[in-house]
TrEMBL record:
Keywords: Membrane, Transmembrane, Transmembrane helix. It comes from Desulfomonile tiedjei. Belongs to the HesA/MoeB/ThiF family. This is HesA/MoeB/ThiF family protein. SUPFAM superfamilies: Activating enzymes of the ubiquitin-like proteins. The chain crosses the membrane at residues 30-54. One of its GO terms (molecular function) is ubiquitin-like modifier activating enzyme activity.
Amino acid sequence: MQPSVPRYSRHMLLKVIGEEGQEKIENSRVLVAGLGALGSMAALLLARAGVGFLRIVDQDAPELHNLHRQFLYDEADVESGLSKAEAAELHLQAANSSVKIDAVNEAIGPENVDALCSDVDLVVDALDNIRTRYFINDLILSRGIPYVFGGAVETIGNIMTIIPGKTPCLRCLWPDPEAVDNHPRASAVGVLSSAAATVASLQVTEALKILVGRENDILSGLLVLDVWRSCFHVAPISIDPECICRKLRQ
Ligand SMILES: [Zn+2]
């Protein structure tokens, strides 16, 4: 029996999505790189939004100290010994059985980044280290795949949307990986769960804009937010004339 109200009616009613946009979402393929605080929230939002194909990648297993901010997992998952990718697949499939999930229990590196990224329409970056982010940044530039970067530590978050050939890339933002390695990490200084959830929500919003074909609406620059101080600021970012992405604009 058909439900009286379609599953995605509240999306389809939105002027910025509509029936046509929802159909695009359902026909899209997205990679969520990393299944920690950002990735588990992003994957949940994307699955519930009806994204047709979700590839989820992480090599870790859920631990008790993850649960305050990694909303895809519960205490049973910590006990089960399942990997994050396996546990996430079960929870995402329970939330929306129509989404095809490809759960990959691997670290992302130079040997698999091409295979993981090449057949998707968009990448959501939910990683926690700059080296792996560079692998993805460089791959998506060569393949022309949009990429939504996000990070959260303490009460602060960053979001940037990268459209190859149109916007600055991650190397324009951070040309020196050594400097980024010295940024504070959540494992040392903590992270507020609502800061991570806010960043993931904004990343998914950027992703949906791209998937429904509203690239003109995307965030321009680096969004820096501090949820504790209720502060949001967009910092302009320019293409680095020395960056590898510059040649895509010529
Ligand atoms: Zn660049």
